[in-house]
Structure formats: C-alpha cells, structure tokens
Structures
1.
Amino acid sequence: MGAVLSALGTLGAVIAVGWLLGRTGTLGERAAPVLARVVFAVATPALLLVTVAHADLHLLLSRTAVVTWSSTVLVALTAVLVLRLVWRRGAAEVTVGTLASSYVNAGNLGLPLAVYLLGDAVAVVPALLFQLLVLAPVAFAVLDARATAAAPDEDPRSGRAWTLRVRAVVRRTLSNPIIVGTLTGLVLAALPWRLPEVVYQPFALVGAAAAPLALLTFGMSLAVPRTAASRAPRRELALAVGLRSVAHPVLAWALGAALGLPAPALLAVVAMASLPTAQNVLVYAMQYGRGEALARDAGLVTTVLCVPVLLVVTATLG
C-alpha cells in the first residue's frame, strides 16, 4: 500500500502546484485552456504513439483483458443508459459523464501501482489499450459529431446532408491528434519488425510532459472560484463516483471470479478497476467545452476515495 500512497502523494503535489499557479495567476487567465490544448494536441498523442507501439497486442486475447474490457463496457453502458434514457442529457454531456465513470487513471496512477503493488507493469496494459483503442475514439467521434452540422441550405433530413455530415465526422475523427497517435502506434506494434529506439526518443521526450501538464491543468481548474454554474450536477457526480469507485471494482471481481482467474490476476484486474477517473477526461472536456465541472469534480472525488477502496481490495484479495 506504500506504492499507492507514494503515487497519490506525487499526483497531489503536482496538482497542488497547479492550484497555486492558478490561484496566483502566474501564467495568466488563459493558461489552463492553453495547457489543455498542448496536452490534447501534442503531448498525449506522442505518449500514446510510443506506449501502444511497444505494447504486446497478444494481451488483448487474455482472460484478464476479457474481464477488464467487459467490466468497463458494462460501466460505460450503465452510465449511458442512466444519463441518456433516464435523465435525458444531451449527447456531449452523456459522453463526458460516461468517460468520468469509466475512464481510469491507468497511466499516472495505474502504472506505478502495477509495478510496486502487483510487481508487473503488464497489468495496466489491457485497461490502457481498451481506453485508447475503444473508449477515446468512440467518445471523440460523438463529440465531433455534435460539433458538425449540415450546411445551412441543406435539409438536415436529406440523403446528401447525411452524407456530408458522415464525411465531416469521419474527417474530424481521423484528424483528431489522439486518435492519430493511437492508430499510428497500433500499426507500429503490428509490424513484424521494430523501428530503432532512436526513432521513438523524440516522441517519448514530448510524451513525458503529458502527465505533469494534465495534472497542472487539473490543479489550475480547482483554483477557479466556484459559482452555481461551475459546480458539477449532484446526480451526475454521484453516478460517476458510484460507478467508478464501487460498481466497477465489484463487476471486475465478479467477472474475474466467474472466469476462474487465479488470485494474482484477480487482484490485478480489481485493482485496475479501482483506479480514479483520469485527469485526461478534464482535458477532453475542456477541449470540447462540455462537462468540465463534472470531469473536474469526478477526478477529485474518486482520487480521494481511491485509497480506502484499494485498501479494501488488497485486504480482501491480496
């Protein structure tokens, strides 16, 4: 558990620096959106290219991956059903709420947790790849679709209007920097030969800035004075926190036990499912200007709850 506390302490220190920068206005009023844009368009794509290019794609066929993917899909579908069908939220708000409920902090916290608690960094790969190859592309496609409208002189119900809209969505999706970085890494990982490491070094150097910049952005967002309009809706926040901190670990345990995972593998999938909402969700929300308050507050609350949740998981399964 020392690994968990150490990782959380490191995250907390960087977030505190971001809060101080935002509170004092050292970087100016527009610093947080600019940093979010740098993370979204430059640092994160570089990090994902290197990460996915070095991933073992055979892990996608393991029982551990099946449990990770299935539990994540169930959590995401639950969030979509409640937000869309029960509470009638818009597509963009549903998308951000679903990410806040299902997108875990696999990189910043999951990696050190896997290394120090589980003794193997491979444990984080199924969750990381699922988020990069499935959750993020689907979310961006939905958010881009909301930003794309038919031409003013077109009947939005006509076949030509739909064709233009589909083409625009595909074009925006395939030009999304994060999707481009992920797909490029996937192609490189599937090649029968490896590029020299010197080719990856510039991308690794730039990608190393993704995590600290995202944390600084998160801290700066916490320094913004709260108003009624800037607070996350209580129901949406309760749903995201409940799914993220309670439902997902329970689902991972149930599915892992049903598939007969050995004790170490079961501990790994449940620990990864117990991770808090990733700060990247806030970066994505800021990029598209939707659900920023929910992404920020869900990240904060689930990070605080991460320690007791992981203590229960390790005491029960460790």
2.
Amino acid sequence: MELLFQEVVAAASYSLVGLALMAVGYIVIDILTPGKLRTLIWEERNRNASLLLTSNILGLGLIVVGAIWASHGDLVRGLIATAIFGLIGIAAMTLSFVVLDLLTPGKLGEIVTCPDHHPAVWVNCGMHVAVGGMVAMALS
C-alpha cells in the first residue's frame, strides 16, 4: 500500500510540474505571436495558431516524459530535473522561433496569426517537437 501511495504522489507531482511548464509554454507562445491565443484559437478558430500551440505542448510533453524516465525513482531529483529541463526546452523553442523568423521571409508571428492556412507554420511546429525531443534525449 505504501508503494501505491508513493506512486500516486509521484504521478500527481509530475503532472503538476508538467502542467505548470505547459502554462509557461502557453504564455511564451502568446507573447511571441501578435494577438491573444485564446482569441485566435477558441474564438477565431485559427488553425495556424492552434498548430503552433499544439507543437509546443507536444515538445514540452516529450521533455516531461524524458525527465520522468531519467529520474530512476528519485522523485525530488526528477521533479527538479523536469522543471529545469522544461524551462531549457521553452527557452530553446523560443530561440528556434526567433532564428526561424530571422532565416525566412515575412514575420513568423504574423504568418501564425493569418486566418488562411500557411505551410510555414508546419515548419515551426516541426522545430518545436524536434527541440522538445532533443532536450528530452539530453536527459538520458
């Protein structure tokens, strides 16, 4: 019974850290794009903004999974690593957004908020998931 309790505490703790990281990721994407994500996605049904946010969540999810896997049962160390690597992932995703914006024509923030589907958003989404995977593998 004690083992079950420890596993429940670990699952709840990792969930809270993961959700906090996803909230920070949401805020960062909201800052990087013109307008408000809540309006763009839930009211205007903007697919570009939705794809970008989804890729950010998936990338952060990979980092959280990697941190849990690498924790080897040490809950405190695992939670700290998850938070640190999650913040590194958010910073790396932000940097990838800025670098991609500098290397490509147009302003990525404007492309993301465009009401018409734009293929450049998929490139940015790929970057977010790839960066999340790279940071997650750095934990191994």
3.
Amino acid sequence: MYNACYTVMHKALAYDTDGDGLIENSGQPDQTFDTWVMSGTSAYCGGLWLAALLAMVGMADLLGKLDDRKLFEQLLAKGKKSFEKKLWNGLYYNFDCSKNQSNSIMADQLCGQWYLRCCKINEYIVFPKDHIQATLKTIFENNVQSFCNGNMGAVNGFLNGDIDYFTIQSQESWTGVTYALAATMIQELLTPPEALYAHKYYRAIGYMRPLSIWSMQLALEERNKKD
C-alpha cells in the first residue's frame, strides 16, 4: 500500500497553500462533513493530516526509505507547530480559522488521535497529552452533558453555550462520532458517555461511521492488558 499512500499524501500536499505543513480547507464541501464546511486550517482535517504524516514516517522507516521518512518527519514537525499555534485556545482546538465558526466545539476534533490509538501508537507524538485531556473534558461538558440532558450522545457542534445551528450536520448527533469519542475517552482512561436516541426516527439509514464502535472493543482490550 505504500506507493498508493505516498501518492495520496503528495496529492493532498497541494492543499497546503501557505507552506505551514498543514493542508487547508477551501470553504467548500471538501471533507465528509459535507454541509458543515471548513475554511483554512481545521481541527478535523488538520488532525487527520498530522496522524497520516506520522503513519507515513513509520511506513517509510519499515521499508528503509530514508529520504521519504525525512520528508514526512519535517512536514510533521512543521505541521504540529502550526496546528497548535493556529487552533489551540486553551480548552480545545478551534473548529477552523473562519470568522463565524472558529469557536465551535466539534465532537470529532480528536479523530486523528483516535486513529493513532487504534493503530496502537500510544505515545503522545502528535497531540500533547494535556491538550487531549482538556479537549475531551470540554467536549463532554458541552457536546454531551449540555445536549438533551446528557442522554443522547454527543452533538456534532456546540457554540456559545448552545447547539451549533450553522448547518443540519452541526446540529445532529451521529452515532459513529459518539462511538469514536467514547473510544477516545476509554483510550485516555476516562469514563465514556452513553449515547441513546431520544426519538424513533433517522435521517440516514446507515453508513460507515457507526463501525467505529469496534474501536471501543479494541480500546477496552488494550486497557485490560495493562490492568
């Protein structure tokens, strides 16, 4: 898979428009929250990009591709600094760099960290441990506890003390995102929230995100090994 991954990463690198080591969003539907558009550096895509860079470092190292490893290491080092400088606000990572959405608390902002843990990368190489802990605490207090009395999982977006009404997707609670968030909390040795539907209806019958529930089992198995 290395050649395919290498090609994808270099294609994606074209979206690093300012040379800071991070890909930027266009303000158009260019990621899987296709109505909740992102502009400039975003926590969701930026975090996934950094996790992917670390994966490329590992793969290049295993294959003895030293020049490639050096390239991806340099991009990762530059991107990590930019990510923290542009998005970290002391409590969580800003949604993006736009004027009207930047302060939105996104439930899925640590998606990159979740993937790294699922790949059994347990060191805090990309995201600082204290920032992960603070972010999870902020998400739980706002997107979970302040949404439907804490009984419906995590709402995708929370802004200025209320649900983020920017788009239908920011207002929704997605089971897959909630499962991934719960797994991330388990990975960080935090008690996860429990998500239940409040009403008997749905907008989409099903897609891939709910499969993230299996990462909860992986997280629990790894935690039990330590116990």
4.
Amino acid sequence: MEGSRTSLAKWHTVIELLSDKKSVNAVQLALLIQVTYKTAWSILHKIRRAISELDEDRRLAGYVTGGVVFYGRPQFAYYRTEREHPLWVSCAQEREVRRDNNFERDSGLYVKIKRLTDHDLIGQKLAHSGETRLFEEHLEGQAVGVTLNRAEFRRNPLLFPLYKEAEKWINQTFRGIGGKYQQAYWDEFCFRVNYMHHVHPVSHILASVCMGNFEQAYRRKHAS
C-alpha cells in the first residue's frame, strides 16, 4: 500500500473480495472499485505476492502426503502435452507448525500447491531429486513426507478433491492461467483453505499479512 494513489477504502474492498472463496479477477475489480485495469491488476498482484511470501515462510510439519497432477490436461489424455503444467499438491496433518523460529497452534491441516519443473520429473512421475527439493524447501526437518503414485493420489479423499476445486476456481474466475504468474494463484487458493477455520476472519488475517510485509520493507529501507 506504500506510495499507492489508490485510497485505503478501495484497498480494503480488494482485501475483502480476495478473502471470499469466489475471489475476483482484474477486469471485475476495475469495474467494482472504478480504477483502470492496470491498477486493478497491480493491486491484486501485490496482495498475492504477500500471500506467497507468507506461504514460503511456513514449512509443513507432521505427516505430509503429496502427489503430482498436471493442470491443463485435456480430458481422456494419457500423455503429457506442451500446454500442461505439472503441480505438487500436498497436505500436512500437523498440530504445531514453525514460523520465524516460533511455534504457533494450527487446526491440524495445512495445504500447498506448488509448480514443478521438468527437472523435478521423470516422465509423469516425481523424480527423487524433485522430491528431495520439495521436501527441503517446504517441509520441517522432523516432518515425514510421503509421495503418492497417480492411482493413490486420485483415491485420496482430501488431495484430489482439493486440486479439482482449485482447478475449477481458476478456470471459472480467470478462464485459465498461463505459467508466468500461475504460482501466485495457487498460493491464493491455498491461503483461503488454510485460514478459513482460523479464530480470526480471513480478511483480518490478509490485512495483517499485507501490513506486515509493509512494516518489514519499511524497516529494511531505513536500516540501510
């Protein structure tokens, strides 16, 4: 929000809209708060970046299951096409999670959807090197990580429905998303899922996240 010519009232409206599971795209937002498409896109991108930074700081604890899925795969296709984007969909069954070297209580579940590179895969399966990278970047040191095969992933009562819900949301709200900014949208979806049962409303948490990032940037700027 620092240096923005957009009023705080409009920022507040955007935060409320992003906190709802339907969310909003830049075209819709431009009409709702009476700004240009460029301004609407910039506001949404800044908030999604704050969400992604929050998620990067939070590692999965406890028992973690995950599997590979391909976003954009045509129906009844059994071989990968160039338009598909491989993803790692995971869930931690945890009671305590670590953030900034402190423990904080959680309801017991935390989900992540992360993009994969071709180097993470062997064919359509997660390579050992890819699994190692994911576990090192997203799991606590004491967490137990398990990678499901394709059949196990589709039978999983949480992971597969979670992915299908995220896929449906992206396709309906944004008519699909290309590769460049796709990760921010998966992070936005997971943010709402992870905090929907929190003691505080999702909109309050999101506002705190945005202001927290501003405070950190302010301190770094004045410390240099």
